Amino acid sequence: MTLARFRPRDVSSQLGSAKTTIVIAVGLLTCAGCASFNERVSLPWDKSPAVDGATLASHQAQLMEQAGQSAERQGKIDEAIRLYEQARTLNAETDPLGRHLAMLYDQQGDDSRAWTEYERALARTPDDVDLQNDVGMYHLRRSRHAAAEVCFRRALQLQPRHARARNNLGISLAMQGSLPESFAAFSEVSGPAAAYSNLGVILIRQGKTDMARDHFRRSLEEDPSLIQATTLLAQLDRAPPAITASPENFPVRPVGYDSEPR
Predict the structure, then answer these.
(1) What pLDDT digit, counting tens, does each position of 30-82 carry?
(2) Exposed / middle / buried, residue 79 (Cβ in 10 Å: 0-12, 13-18, 19+)
(3) Could you give the count of Cα atoms lying within 13 Å of 135 in the half-sphere of its Cβ?
(4) Domain spanning 56-124: CATH superfamily
(5) 57 burial class (0-12, 13-18, 19+ CB within 10 angstroms)?
(6) How far is Cα 41 from Cα 84, in angstroms, rounded to an integer?
């Protein structure tokens, strides 16, 4: 009997063939009964549902509004107005934009468009304390002091501690000659020394220089370090100051427009 010679190469070949057979068999067993790979696995990159036109317009309006706020912060009023108007065209439910537009038109001196926007805003949110203050500012800028007073008092009814409205009420009262009430309003916001000084500034505007001197002196009795009273009293003692036509030139500034971009 002749024994076959043992050859390592033959064993290696046989083992390799056996491994291949096992792998194929395992694969067939794994896939047995499977309809397809796609039916077993839910892919994570499934398509998102389609966005409807109204949602897309709302998103575009938000982008326009943000761009308008950026332009407004940079003092680009015309650009801000254009962007806000486009945003409102895309989404009419953007309520704050009418109020923003009203303020910007007001700052530009566009009386008609500003008032149209304020009326629309008041119709929608008549109890908005900041809006009432802003409308009062609209009247104050146009020397409609009695109308301004009504708005500031309405704001204070809504929020008694609203400092801007109370300060502006002091201005509107002083411009109408109600000095004691004006002094009380100013005092509540910034104390008696500043109140006397503020009244002195308004009295200068009205050409009442003697009364202005008296108020500046009273201011310095309350607070000798108050720079505004010291400076303006010294100017009055040297020569009467030039009387300007616009209340916007007062060192006593109306305080409004709290709805600027935050």
Answers:
(1) 444 444 444 454 555 555 555 566 778 778 888 888 898 899 899 899 999 99
(2) middle
(3) 28
(4) Tetratricopeptide repeat domain (1.25.40.10)
(5) middle
(6) 47
- Tens digit of each residue's pLDDT (9 = 90 or more) over 109-126: 899 999 999 999 999 899
CA distances (Å), origin 60, targets 49, 63, 66, 71, 101: 18, 5, 10, 17, 18
Find out whether 64 and 31 touch, Cβ atoms under 8 Å. Answer: no
**DSSP symbol at 251:** S
Q: How much of the chain is in helix, strand and coil states, percent to nearest 5?
A: 70, 0, 30
Give the pLDDT confidence of 146-194 residue by residue, as tens digits. 999 999 999 999 999 999 999 999 999 999 999 999 999 999 999 999 9
Q: Across residues 236-254, what is the average pLDDT? A: 55
Tokens 């501690």 belong to: 161
Pairwise CA distance, residues 106 & 96, whole Å: 16
* Sequence-ordered list of residues with C-beta below 8 angstroms from that of 81, at least 6 positions apart, any chain: 68, 101, 104, 105, 108
Residue with tokens 């912060």: 73
Task: Give me the pLDDT at residue 64, please.
Answer: 85
189: exposed, middle or buried (C-beta count within 10 Å: 0-12, 13-18, 19+)? buried
User: How many other C-beta atoms lie within 10 A of the C-beta of residue 242?
Assistant: 7
- Burial class for 196, CB neighbours closer than 10 Å (0-12, 13-18, 19+): buried
